[in-house]
């Protein structure tokens, strides 16, 4: 049976068929939940023909929903509408793939289930008794320990995973800069960042040449394109300045501070996660749109790790949509 897998997030929609097709598009679910079914139907129409649709999600956390249960029910309803005559299945954090009514009845198992699908796939690449998956995306970082080729997490829900260090709410595109660092150097003086949505990590990595410029992409703090010149302006605004008050060199130094702070926070979380078992991992799988930063995380860890890059193995686009790709492969096995 042909299938198409979706990872339905609060800001992005990702699709994959497990045979090389992947698609990623920004979708601000929290702003327009009523348009989700149409967006999914459009993606289904552009993808290779599929008889079955399988989903995982994190979008239930979007603040357009009062509760996770409401979010799960709404998202499941949207995919059923978009799928039309196709069979729909939902992946749960206990590894089951179930029909929609069961997912709606058990919303906390359906909620935030994408990490489990990816971890189950990543474990296949780990031959050592102890391994680790680190997936860094636009918004969050998942740090998933494995034992004997199976996920071995302390937490299952988002709050549990935040507490255990297995979920770090920091990514390489959407995280506000004031959530990463406290101050930038401006005219030789440390200047605190204003706690306003003036700039994001995407601006830092644009300036550092680790994300490409894109004139068509206006998913930014000020709605202007993702270019270095606009990124300079956004970073300057984060300390209540502009490009006449903060030089390009100062903005570049600020971006380096953001990079270093994110690396430090992820390294800290990795040590917390591995500390639960008391054993350091021998292998690590890296994935997500932020793989470029994870390379520096690995260098900063005090261990000799064998690394597996999904971007190198499967290509950067598949790595960016790794959760959907993983779900497609798992669903094929379970079919």
From TrEMBL:
Question: Which residue windows are coiled coil?
Answer: none
One GO MF term attached to the UniProt entry:
hydrolase activity
Q: What is this protein called?
A: Hydantoinase/oxoprolinase
The superkingdom of the source organism is: Bacteria
Q: Which organism is it from?
A: Adhaeretor mobilis
**Annotated Hydantoinase A/oxoprolinase domain residues:** 55-328
Which NCBIfam families does the record cross-reference, listed alphabetically?
one_C_unchar_1 (TIGR03123)
């Amino acid at each position: 049976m042909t299938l198409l897998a979706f990872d339905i997030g609060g800001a992005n929609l990702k699709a994959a068929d497990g045979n090389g097709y992947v698609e990623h598009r920004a979708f601000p679910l929290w702003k327009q939940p009523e348009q989700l079914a149409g967006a999914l139907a459009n993606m289904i129409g552009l993808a290779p023909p599929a008889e079955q649709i399988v989903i995982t999600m994190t979008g239930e956390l979007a603040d357009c929903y009062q509760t996770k249960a409401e979010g799960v029910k709404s998202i499941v309803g949207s995919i059923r509408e978009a799928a039309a005559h196709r069979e729909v299945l939902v992946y749960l954090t206990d590894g089951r793939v179930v029909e929609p009514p069961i997912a709606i009845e058990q919303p906390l198992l359906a909620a935030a289930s994408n990490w489990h699908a990816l971890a189950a796939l990543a474990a296949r690449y780990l031959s050592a008794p102890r391994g680790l998956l680190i997936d860094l995306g636009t918004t969050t970082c998942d740090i998933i320990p494995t034992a004997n080729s199976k996920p071995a997490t302390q937490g299952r829900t988002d709050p549990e995973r935040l507490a255990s260090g297995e979920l770090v709410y920091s990514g390489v595109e959407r995280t506000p800069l004031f959530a990463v660092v406290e101050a930038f150097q401006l005219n030789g003086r440390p200047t605190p960042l204003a706690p306003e949505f003036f700039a994001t990590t995407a601006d830092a990595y644009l300036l550092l040449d680790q994300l490409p410029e894109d004139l068509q992409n206006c998913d930014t703090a000020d709605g202007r394109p993702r270019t270095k010149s606009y990124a300079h302006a956004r970073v300057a605004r984060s300390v209540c300045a502009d490009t006449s008050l903060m030089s390009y060199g100062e903005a570049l130094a600020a971006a380096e501070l953001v990079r270093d702070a994110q690396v430090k926070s992820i390294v800290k979380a990795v040590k917390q996660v591995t500390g639960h078992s008391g054993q350091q991992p021998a292998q690590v799988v890296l994935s997500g749109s932020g793989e470029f930063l994870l390379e520096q995380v690995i260098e900063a860890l005090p261990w000799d790790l064998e690394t597996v890059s999904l971007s190198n193995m499967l290509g950067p686009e598949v790595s960016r949509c790794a959760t959907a790709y993983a779900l497609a492969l798992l669903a094929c096995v379970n079919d």
